Amino acid sequence: MTRCLQVRRADGKSGISWDQLQKLKNEYLGKETCCVEFYPPDDNLVNEVNMRHLWEVPEEMLPMGRR
What we know:
It is built from 1 helix and 3 strands. It has one helix at 18-29, and strands at residues 4-7, 34-36, 52-57.
């Protein structure tokens, strides 16, 4: 089952750094979990709130394999 982490700032402002996303990913999904963000075509875009989504990628689907 693929998991998704939805992240937004409590104050509603923009600006979530890569370091912050990595820390939250590690805390909630685990340090060994690989995640991606998707950037859809404009006609599929839903941009109603300032939120980021990190999607877990199963190890067998990783293009670069595990190190």
